[in-house]
């Protein structure tokens, strides 16, 4: 399998070559030159597989340059009940992403799929844990090392650190805004004592952290000598690892391939639901892909109107589902590429327009850039939006009726899913975090704290390891240089 850029850069690349890459050289995102197709016979054969072996079947079609026995070893090491152990009462850790039926509505079932049982209690572990093992494997074969530099406001940083801790050849330098994360998230990251993990608390806000990462990445010679890499949400391996749990959810929720299911996905950067789109393009019988946003409704606006309009920082809200607080959806270009019939030239010109004019319009209306919005429904996409009061009401309702506490992001998913349930079609809501991570809002909704999984009880009182630094790229560079010795 070869990978191409959404903006037309032609040098076809293999999976291992883009594993450590971010954007393609032309500023586009990598996608396979064609999606591998899955047959009904494949689905039948996969019904009895463990999560790890299902992951092998799917990933082996994308990572064709990794020897099969090595890939099988990597997925079996990644997807174990020991890693995904933070299950709720009544869930089976062996299933890795267990389902829980909430209710029947209009003859359609509403089901939660738990993706947040990994070490950091959010779905980003599903892909990041695999990435950690893939990186270690490829680096050791190349006798190479890698220094991951990232910026986080919470979930990504901790998922990356727990995936890379103790890994040979890898160091993580993670910038976070000093005293701006929740105490739980801060403790998760800063309590790691591994020597290859470096927490840098920046005196500033998240945007300052991101600016520093950009400044360092733009210094190409520094980047090369310090062997800097990133693990942000456009990373192809992260997206493809997420494809697996759509298959898993489908196979757990159905008994025959005649049945269709829908997925509702709490969305920010469009990474998670992009994986659902890819699963559907591979032939998985998905009816609808329901994009749920919070107050930051860039994606809901597009899927309602055909207009993609990125927000300024002053129009980007800090909400109680903070991992969905985005001003633009960085993986969206992958879907637009398919929507436009893979016309890379048009994709390039539309996303240039995003840079110069803040967006584009595919509504087909006067002066628009195209009429492809009419085709969006063929791809199964629908959307909706959920606000703070909706989150509170949904958390209360699900707790009262089903005895289950859901987190704020999942609540956005449930709220919007309920607006799209159809008779006879199971709607799977992806549970993207456990409520313990977002306790303040659980307290507000329910009047008590969320239960914490075993081992997280006193996480805030563990010793913390971090340095505080001004928002200054030169100081961060110097710090990295000293600690890599390169
Ligand atoms: C990252 C994250 C999201 C958003 O996922 P995208 O892939 O950016 O759309 C939703 N919920 C939680 C809890 C997250 O950590």
TrEMBL record:
Pfam families in UniProt? PALP, THR4_C, Thr_synth_N
Cofactor(s) this protein requires: pyridoxal 5'-phosphate
Q: What is its EC number?
A: 4.2.3.1
Which major enzyme category is it?
A: lyase
Q: Where is the Tryptophan synthase beta chain-like PALP domain?
A: 93-347
Q: Which NCBIfam families does the protein's record reference? A: thrC
Per the record, the similarity remark reads: Belongs to the threonine synthase family.
Record-given protein name: Threonine synthase
Q: Give the originating organism.
A: Noviherbaspirillum suwonense
